[in-house]
Amino acid sequence: MDPVLADDLSRLPDLLQSARDFAAEEVTGIAERPVARPGGRPGPVPLPSAGIGAEGALARFAERWAPGFSGSAGPRYLGFVTGGATPAAVTGDWLTSVYDQNVSGGGDSFATALERETLGWLRELFGLGGEYGGAFVTGATVSNTVGLAVAREWLGERLGVDVSREGAAALGPVDVLSGSPHSSVTKALSVLGIGRDRLRTVPLLPGGREAVDVDALAAALESLGGRPAIVVANAGTVNTVDFDDLRAVAALKERYDFWLHVDAAFGGFAALSPAYAHLVDGLDAADSVCVDLHKWLNVPYDAAVQFTRRQDLQVRVHHNASPYLGLPSGEPDFLHLTPENSRRLRALPAWFSLMAYGRDGHREIVERNVALARTLGERLSETAESVLVAPVRLNVVCFTLAERPTRERVHAMADAIAAGGETFVTPTVLHGTHALRAAFSNWRTEGADVERVVDAVLAGAARAEP
């Protein structure tokens, strides 16, 4: 054994304690570290020939790289839709690395059973029945890709084509309909060989909504002349957290032949709160569902889940036909359900957080985040520098400059906010208006953070280019 490696092995408990002490110090200061760290990156160094050991590597990391890591796990990182990591989730994530399980099959470890238990808890949390099979994946993009891959196989079933063997080209043109699809949907269509251009956007409800007009969707389905299609419904859009009427969309299946995939990446967590659960009414009528966990469940990156009623088709798409892996039978191993054969135990951080805080604890996070988003919306509306471009429906505040919200000025404002280090928001375009998004999904965020965000936004507006 390499002598440096052997020395690390002999001192492993001490090394883990050093890592624990360093991590504890970093976590303790997360609320006050700069939220964003744009620019000033160190240059690369040559690969060392002789290693310096884990303790030396930790010291080198602490010196060169740690100061430039963002405070994205902290309470005022409002970019994209980014959760943090609850204490229990961090515990589970550390143990994920300690045990280093490959959750592809269940013959040699309890890990597969733990993932199935966690999936069962999540099904219950989102109001899905036991007919839904599921699996952990890396994020919403892969979750959407898996769901749409199963939808593609369903289309083949309807048209008499075995897509998994003959290829997507055997289907001919595929019709995919959606009102406000996330960009990951078009990426998935590209990966699956369906094609980005096959996505047909359907008119939205009036009044600045991002929810699909169900009558317009019905008309679009009618125009297909009975050809089966895929409908992607949204449970929480990224700009305004708008929700399609899932129950009304699902009711169209009585007249038209389509697969209903629901992208509930973060909006699905509305199910936790009695005040907002009505927004996801009808989720249990979907054929496949995407939910991201490193958003509002606040587990570490990367973790998401996918669910589908047709696990038989999911196996047909993803099964790995190899003698040493075994063929899928009964309850299929996870390697037959997702693109990955090698699978990290992503379920463990979620299991820890759900066990530690339960439904009630995670509901409190959701409801607090929504209340804080509404407070920020009210505070920004009271200023002369900014205006809301949409009502605050759930946990995202979409706002822009009160005067001349050009792309250049809005992006300059975003850059100025990031450079200030107090908070981080991301630019977007809503119905032709350049705007910024502040997404609340972190378990640490409190009322005092909102006031600091307001001050940072006003300072950024003042520094925006004229």
UniProtKB/TrEMBL annotation:
Its cofactor is pyridoxal 5'-phosphate. It comes from the Bacteria. InterPro entries: Aromatic_deC, PyrdxlP-dep_de-COase, PyrdxlP-dep_Trfase, PyrdxlP-dep_Trfase_major, PyrdxlP-dep_Trfase_small, Pyridoxal-P_BS. Pfam families: Pyridoxal_deC. Keywords: Decarboxylase, Lyase, Pyridoxal phosphate. The keyword tRNA-binding does not apply. Belongs to the group II decarboxylase family. This is Pyridoxal-dependent decarboxylase.
